[in-house]
Amino acid sequence: MSRDESTTMPSYTRRRQTGSGSARSLLLTAFGEYVLPQGRPVWTSTLLHVLGGLEIEEKSARQALNRMAADGWIVADRAGRRVRWALTEHGRALLSEGAERIYSFGRERDSWDGRWLVMLVSVPESRRDLRHQLRTRLTWAGLGSPMPGVWISPHGSREAEAKQVVDGLGLDVTVFSVCGPFSGIGSERTMVEQAWHLGDLAAAYEGFVREFAGLRPAPDDEVLLAQIRLVDAWRRFPGLDPQLPLELLPPHWIGVRAANIFTDLHQAWHETAQRRWAALSAED
């Protein structure tokens, strides 16, 4: 590193309430937030410096870099004993797709026609790996399961994505779907709660709000670190929150407030954080 080794980045130490970011997760966020839009490779020393400010040990940071390279996200470019990292085409495509989902998530909700997509899925208990893959992919697609073998969504448009999941797993002959309004048996609200456990989701949003609402980092390294933490925390919610219509959510749903906080802070910090990243990269 060209800077004085005794100079350390201030540590962003505020306790995270939405889960501790791993070295890999924070690296992915840094690459998506700074390397992707600026389009320039980044030196290992810069990444270690930033991750050190995020309380990630150097050994863990280097291991995460090597894993990302092995997975095809980034590629090393050696200059003597030094190494800088660039995104591969694969890495750029995945991070671009992720960025679109992260930055737009929670800002708009489509109107609801009151109809439900219901899928009946039969997977033998002996096929646990297949059951796990199905659950993971349908959950990512925004569907919830109120009881074993049943998956639902108030968004009929999700059927195309669900069909891709089913076809990809070779389950097309053991899955059936119907679409229509909720009938008069049982409670629609109970079905929603069993499918998505909104209390747990609200608790996750409350943790996010407690951590970031009112946060005002200094316009130097601290704003860059805060921006990474903000995006790293927020990018988990598209996989947790199915974006249910407001009619199905509790009054004054905290997810709306959390989305507004994310958008406002990300926009407020963006320019300063980008400049600080460029300055740190230039110093190496």
Structural features, described:
Helix 1 crosses helix 3 (58-70) and helix 1 packs across helix 4 (89-104). The protein is globular and about 70 Å long. The protein has helices at 23-38, 44-53, 58-70, 89-104, 128-140, 159-168, 188-196, 198-212, 221-234, 254-283; strands at residues 42-43, 74-79, 82-87, 115-121, 144-147, 150-153, 175-181. The strands form two sheets. The chain has a four-stranded antiparallel β-sheet with strand order 5-6-4-7. A three-stranded antiparallel β-sheet has the order 1-3-2. Mean pLDDT is 89; it is low at 1-20. It starts with 22 loop residues before the first helix and ends with a helix. It is an alpha+beta fold and 284 residues long. The longest helix has 30 residues, at 254-283. The relative contact order is 0.15.
What would you call the quaternary organization?
A: single chain
- Compute the CA-based radius of gyration: 22 Å
What is the overall number of helices? 10
- SSE order, one letter for each helix or strand: HEHHEEHEHEEHEHHHH
Q: Give the proportion of residues in helices.
A: 40-55%
Structural class: alpha+beta
What is the total tally of β strands?
7
Taking the sheet with the most strands, its summary is: 4 strands, antiparallel
The overall average pLDDT, rounded, is: 89
State the end-to-end CA separation: 6 Å
Strand order of the largest sheet: 5-6-4-7
The fraction of residues in strands falls at: 5-15%
Q: Specify the overall morphology.
A: globular
Extract low-pLDDT stretches.
Answer: 1-20
